[in-house]
Design brief:
Elements (H helix, E strand, L loop, with lengths): L4 H9 L6 H10 L3 H5 L3 H12 L5 H14 L10 H9 L5 H6 L2 H13 L21 H11 L1 H19 L7 E2 L6 E2 L4 H4 L3 H19 L6 H13 L2 H8 L9 H10 L3 H10 L2
Antiparallel strand pairs: 1-2
């Protein structure tokens, strides 16, 4: 029997509550690794609910859950934020600067640089429009969630949320759960996302990747595009544009723009960009 969500739902509906784990175990015993790898989030969560709350044969239930963890796509990231960065890179093909320079280290550096610049209120949890470790706005989140990475972001949220549920039993508040905890989806409000660092990593990495993409120009080195992208992330687009005036072809190259920024007492922008991409 295929492990589609509809088949799992129909099979579980044939038994009483107390029989649910028996049915789920039977489904897993007859499933191949390919069947398990094709599991959808809702199906995996249905199986979890049946197996985790079964009252008999606990060892067998645990074994079935382990099989889901091993062979499904819902494995918890082991190396955050490196895996989030890799997922972003895989879903924004053809942008050389992103492929070359977007890493987990760059995402971590964003958190460090933003942390240096938090004001007194922000350090005490009183945020303005920008929130979280990466200090992003709802508008930035909407661009990632709705426009640039809708499918891959949903897949990442499912991977983290379902993986955490399978492994620990916890329903992360960084995702939106259905009332019976068999469905999970991205939050529409970014304020919910920052409650789960593993999900926030993807959003920060994805928004940084977009800013690098927008900064690529013919004749501009990938490392320079990455630094200009960090400046865009920081909200310094206008200041960088002003610094490029009068530079001619040198406006393509970061060192010349960074020098002008520092000469115009906007060295904090240059420091930020070079802190993200040393």
């Amino acid at each position: 029997m295929a492990l589609s969500t509809s088949e799992i739902s129909r099979a579980l509906a044939k038994g009483s509550k107390i029989q649910q784990d028996d049915i789920a175990r039977y489904l897993m015993m007859n499933a191949t690794s390919a069947d398990i790898s094709a599991l959808e989030a809702e199906g995996a969560l249905m199986l979890y609910n049946a197996l985790a709350y079964g009252n008999s044969q606990v060892a067998q239930n645990r074994h079935a859950l382990t099989q889901i963890q091993l062979y499904s796509r819902f494995s918890m990231p082991q190396n955050p934020p490196d895996e989030a960065a890799a997922e972003v890179v895989a879903n924004i093909p053809g942008v050389h600067a992103v492929q070359a320079h977007l890493t987990g280290t760059a995402i971590s550096n964003i958190y460090v640089e933003e942390g240096k610049r938090l004001n007194w209120l922000e350090r005490r949890g009183i945020d303005g429009d920008s929130i979280g470790r990466g200090q992003l706005t709802q508008k930035a989140y909407d661009e990632v969630r709705n426009k640039a990475f809708p499918g891959s972001y949903r897949d990442w949220v499912e991977r983290v949320a379902v993986g955490m549920r399978l492994q620990t039993g916890i329903c992360t508040p960084g995702a939106k759960w259905g009332p019976d905890f068999t469905t999970v989806a991205p939050h529409s409000d970014y304020a919910g996302v920052i409650n789960e660092p593993l999900i926030e990593d993807f959003v920060v990495g994805a928004y940084l990747a977009l800013q690098i993409k927008y900064s690529e120009k013919a004749g501009r080195a990938p490392k320079d595009a990455a630094r200009f992208g960090a400046g865009r992330y920081f909200g310094a687009y206008e200041s960088m544009s002003e610094a490029q005036e009068g530079l001619g072809k040198n406006a393509l190259h970061w060192p010349f723009v960074a020098l002008k920024l520092r000469m115009s007492l906007k060295g904090d922008i240059a420091d930020y960009c070079e802190g993200v991409f040393p």
